[in-house]
Amino acid sequence: MEFNSLDAQRDAGEAYIASQAANGWVCLPEHYDDGGFSGGNMNRPALKQLLKDCEAGKVDVIVVYKIDRLSRSLFDFAELSKLFEKWNVAFVSVTQEINTHTSTGRMMLNILMTFAQFEREMIATRIKDKMAATRKRGKWCGGQKPYGYCVVDKKLVVEPEKVPIVRRIFDRYLEIQSPKQIAKELNTDGIKTVTNKNWDRQRVYSVLNNHAYIGEVFYEGKVYPGEHEAIIERATWDTTRRFLQANKRERAMPFHIDDALHGLIRCGHCNGSMMPTSSRRWGRVYRYYTCLRDKEALASTCPIKSVPAGEIENLVISHMTPILQAPEVIAGVRQQTGLKETRIADFLKSDLTSILMPIERKRLMQLLVDHVTVNEDTINIEFRTENIKSIQEAYRDQNP
Hints:
This protein has 15 helices and 13 strands. It is of the alpha+beta class. The strands form five sheets. It has a three-stranded mixed beta sheet, with helices on both faces. Strands 8-12-13 form a three-stranded mixed beta sheet.
């Protein structure tokens, strides 16, 4: 439009500034307009520029049409007020007769900001209640449509040409339980997602977990019958749930306290971190350090992939032992503790892999090891010898 509300607000502001000409007020030529942005959004380009100019001393007074044009959030405006006070910048609302030059204006400002925040929260509550009521009726509420559906008259309608692809994703998961491999196959066949992007594990999981494919609507932990047509049969969905839950328990296994090289070990081929992982077979837990970049890649190219955690940790300790047995280390420990050198030497020459508790092994490695690089044919271990003093002090604390 030739003359929109922003123009009207600008005219009102300029008229107010003109009325204050006797006080030396001059309107700056810059326009700080954020058309299309909500007052509840602080990440607005014109607002950012305004704050920069205020900090630079270019602005003495901020004039707005209404207070909520600057911010609807009481918390956000409180933070802005602190900045304005710091920069010695006043704030004026044309239609609400607020001027922070005066104590009365500051009081009115706080009152009106409270009501602006209340109004915003009421609007958000009404929108949330409307969406909840709509979903409970099984209706489509907008957002990104599920793969295999299009939106016609605000309703989800099946796209017949994509139905085989959705069923293929579910069927392949029941066969191999590998979203990573499924994504690789879809990309190889040139199949794109709803947003015309390549598939990855998370996008495959989003399909496998979407209740829309069995004609349901999921909202805040509850499931409601949908008004759209299902693509997947209930039996296939239920079997997929069982596999997903089983794999979720497997992935949720926490790091062990004896993952001593966590954060220290890297893949020499991919130059990425190797993260501690574990698997359970026949009631026994097996620990590994797995190449993180290989795990995230759709096409597996890393020749290392993973190494057994226990073996690599024992290898590091075996190379660490000669450092701990050095005469200067023994002498330093004797000086710190007052123990005989023979007792210290006997302890440091013993099999540390068997006598140290897991948490002690981890503490020792985190203190002394700089990094471990695993290559195809070699393993490189770099130590932090400057931390020998810390080891001496730790030994003193444990042997008072």
